[in-house]
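1st attempt posting a full record on here, be nice pls
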Amino acid sequence: QVQLVESGGGLVQAGGSLRLSCAASGRTFSSYSVGWFRQAPGKEREFVAGINWYVGSTYYADSVKGRFTISRDSANNTMYLQMNNLKPEDTAVYYCAGDMYYRGRDYVSRYLTDYTFWGKGTQVTISS
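the predicted structure (as tokens):
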């Protein structure tokens, strides 16, 4: 069983930056895709970015491409999301998640239903 704990959320002005962290305990991320999703009030949870833990390949939603960077630290079993040039529409609860199934050497899971274990989320609020 893997437990995921997010941290790093907060309130920043538009144009600012935040770095979210997701620490895993109980089992390593190795061989899984891990990713970030977000959910704004009244909206469905949506994919933000994912990374193949084993080979490091990444995949981003179009809305964050060029502004967000996902990375992982295998030694510390931690995943990060560096968010730059933040916009008010980035305001949401951000969740990290893990896909427990191997889907291909370079594949990065990107669908909500691929992910089987979740953190509890961290709030990100961007003021205009």
